[in-house]
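Structural prep section.
Before we set up the soaks we want a predicted structure of the protein with S-adenosylmethionine in place, mainly to decide which crystallisation condition to try first. Input record follows.
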Amino acid sequence: MTTASDTDRWTVLRLIRWSTEYLEGKGVEQARLDAEHLLAHALDVGRLQLYLQYDRPLVPEELDRFRPLLRRRARREPLQHVIGRAAFRDLELKADARALVPRPETELLVQLVLDWSRGRGALSAADVGTGTGCIALALASEGPFERVWGIDISADALALARENAAVHDPDQRVVWREARGLAGLDGATVDVVVSNPPYVARDEADGLAPEVRDFEPDTALYAGEDGREVIHELVREAPGALEAGGLLALEVGLGQAASIRDTLHAHGAWENATVHEDYTGRERFVTATRRHE
Ligand SMILES: C[S@@+](CC[C@H](N)C(=O)[O-])C[C@H]1O[C@@H](n2cnc3c(N)ncnc32)[C@H](O)[C@@H]1O
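Run finished without errors. Recording the tokens verbatim:
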């Protein structure tokens, strides 16, 4: 991919094929898709536009823009860090090393909250561990939420969330707070507490993909010895932050849902504790409502 004579012969399709093989060799899972995203980013076109230009030869400047992107992805940096953005529901969010890259399953957590919210009038919510701000911003733009608190313990994550809010929250419905858990509410009560908290146990680090283990912030991943520290804190503290009948909606790690539902059952403040599955049938969400006194 480097010699001058070669350069003459690089077309869009040939480069996609070569890069796909190269990324596959580095253990990248969706190598073809990622190669296309990287090239589209380097050429500043939409990915699908590449399909109309397969035979177009690439000029040296285009190859120069593409090469460093491919190198970063080959080192297993997340695609979204390399191209600087991530899709989440209707939003295109800025993404970088300051916060967790939003995941498709978290879009379902938002859907659970929106489904519950339907027909309830104007509501308020707290998104604990907001990261890029994806959940808070999606609720503010799609749901009947007049006020959303986006809370994070990480100043870096909040800085990124604020940058995303500048684009996606024109009415400034989300207020951003640097705090641990629900302390960020300053004593206010809300109708919904939603969280995709850190839930990985420290000794599970070796099992994580390099994209996650080596590039995402530790504060976004790990939560105590068994990964449940932040979740248990929310189960204890959310009753004091929720209106009676209010919703707690949590994304949890694989294998954690049933035990967290049981913890909610055992705690007198909760009712309707329910486990929900993700797109692939895995138990990934737990919801409950605050019991009326
Ligand atoms: C798994 S990431 C989720 C980010 C985002 N909500 C999402 O779904 O993509 C967890 C976030 O929680 C934050 N966090 C960790 N412990 C926290 C705590 N005790 N209180 C508030 N935020 C916390 C981390 O900084 C990180 O941004």
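Observations: The chain has a mean pLDDT of 96.
Flagged for discussion at group meeting.
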